[in-house]
């Protein structure tokens, strides 16, 4: 069942901010250089299952990581608890995700995702990374699905507005990965309803 109000939409056990429908966004890596992997107070949020998968797959993707990053991972562990008590990826110099590397264009990329695209592992990357700039906060009775507006993503906003691509369409794949095909169909129906109301 889908429930609407002035600021959010409820689908199943998710409460979705209207920004997810109304904001335009397409990631522009050439301009942001992968800043989301280096900005923030802690590493990328992980589930317990994701932490286990990363530890399992580490021998297959570690070759893509700088030696210093490998040292940090092997010293701090494959995941860690941050100051808020959340399970996250380890950081290099308390800033950059340890699972990243710079490519030849100076763009920060994910070593896990690199191995995925090379067909070496089946896990793409943490779903929190895949969904960014959507952030999900899990509560006992519902998940809050919100758009996190950051200065580092201004190029993505400009690109999305130029192409007229809503955030929920740009992030179709990770949203389906998180909540499933049927949930996303409900999301599209809700988006159509909101568009009709605006017209």
Automatic annotation (TrEMBL):
Instruction: List the InterPro entries hit by this protein, alphabetically.
Output: Rv0495c
Which Pfam family is an annotated match for this chain, by its short name? DUF3109
Give the protein family. Belongs to the Rv0495c family.
| UniProt protein name | DUF3109 family protein
């Amino acid at each position: 069942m889908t429930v609407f109000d002035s600021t959010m939409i409820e689908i199943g056990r998710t409460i979705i901010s209207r920004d997810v429908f109304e904001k335009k966004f397409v990631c522009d890596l050439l301009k942001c250089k992968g800043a989301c992997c280096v900005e923030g107070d802690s590493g990328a949020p992980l589930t317990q299952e994701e932490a286990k998968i990363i530890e399992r797959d580490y021998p297959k993707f570690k070759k893509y990581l700088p030696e210093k990053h490998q040292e940090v991972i092997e010293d701090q562990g494959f995941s860690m608890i941050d100051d808020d008590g959340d399970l996250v990826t380890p950081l290099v110099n308390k800033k950059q995700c340890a699972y990243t590397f710079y490519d030849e264009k100076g763009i920060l990329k994910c070593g896990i995702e690199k191995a995925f695209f090379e067909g070496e592992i089946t896990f793409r990357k943490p779903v929190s990374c895949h969904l960014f700039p959507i952030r999900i906060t899990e509560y006992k009775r519902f998940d809050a699905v919100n758009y996190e507006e950051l200065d580092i993503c201004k190029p993505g906003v400009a690109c999305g507005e130029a192409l007229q691509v809503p955030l929920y369409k740009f992030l179709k794949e990770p949203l389906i990965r998180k909540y499933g095909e049927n949930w996303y169909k409900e999301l599209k129906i809700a988006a159509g309803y909101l568009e009709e109301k605006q017209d």
